[in-house]
Design goal:
single chain; mainly alpha
């Protein structure tokens, strides 16, 4: 499909957008109980517990990002402990704190 042919897009947009009347006559509020789940749930798969004994990264993140070294030859698949470390440290979760109230 050619991205410059936007007639279908405009038809959809104009058919689904709010009208002046709908914005003025409807009470607008956030429906908190009707939120989508923040994470995808795979209900047919068994949970796979990730190891908690994570190795600290060998390099600071900015050094690793700026590195221009070549990858080692061959196909590399991280083991479960390495994958858990990548997921943990890339999410930025390094500490948990509990506050009263």
């Amino acid at each position: 499909m050619d991205n410059r042919l936007v007639d279908a897009t405009w038809t959809y947009h104009n058919g689904t957008k709010h009208s002046y009347e709908s914005l003025r006559t409807s009470a607008h509020f956030l429906d908190w109980p009707n939120q989508p789940l923040p994470f995808k749930v795979y209900s047919t798969l068994e949970p796979l517990p990730l190891p908690g004994d994570l190795a600290l990264p060998a390099l600071p993140a900015l050094v690793a990002i700026g590195a221009s070294g070549a990858d080692p030859p061959g196909h590399h698949v991280p083991d479960l402990r390495t994958l858990a470390g990548i997921l943990f440290f890339s999410a930025g979760i390094t500490r948990r704190r509990t506050f009263s109230g």
